[in-house]
Design a protein that fits this description.
By secondary structure, this protein is mainly alpha-helical. Helices cover 42% and strands 10% of the residues. The protein contains seven helices and four strands. α1 runs antiparallel to α4.
């Protein structure tokens, strides 16, 4: 896999940054383009809980040329192919020679499809882990789960299972 900074399109992005990025003033960009928010944001429907997710890039130091160059880097690096292979459960984590199951953790809802790795659907195991996390979280929040002192926990630093644990 080629590092992004070694791709031909990277030098175009670097040149763009050198000529435009260093003098970019976000406040001025909003003044020049009143439709900036609309142009650089998108709302996605979240079918898992019937909410919406807003991706707002309008407050980033980008313009249409920046986006075009970033998309070119993504295409040149084969990102779309890797994305598709990830959703198929293929082993794209070359350092550990395993599948990347981030998508499986978010594969929820009544219409969730199975994700197979080596011909085995991993979703039953993922759902079991997610349920375990839910039960644990509820016990912590309710005060049922006690710490070493026997008192309910009041501060949580980090709870996570990490993708490699699946």
């Amino acid at each position: 896999m080629t590092h992004a900074d070694k791709l031909p399109s990277w030098s175009a992005l670097q040149s763009h940054h050198d000529t435009v990025g260093r003098s970019f003033v976000l406040k001025d960009e909003f003044k020049k383009d009143p439709a900036r928010f609309t142009k650089f944001s998108h709302t996605f429907a979240n079918s898992a809980d019937n909410t919406e997710i807003l991706f707002d890039f309008s407050k980033n130091l980008i313009n249409e040329e920046t986006v075009k160059l970033l998309v070119q880097i993504a295409k040149e690096s084969g990102l779309e192919e890797l994305r598709d292979r990830m959703f198929k459960g293929e082993k794209i984590n070359f350092t550990e020679e395993r599948a990347v199951l981030h998508a499986a953790l978010r594969n929820v809802g009544d219409d969730a499809k199975g994700i197979e790795v080596d011909g085995v659907d991993v979703m039953p195991g993922v759902k079991k882990e997610l349920e375990h996390m839910r039960e644990f979280s509820e016990k912590v929040r309710s005060g049922e789960w006690k710490g070493f002192t026997g008192k309910p926990l009041t501060t949580i630093i980090n709870i996570g299972i990490g993708g490699s644990d699946l």
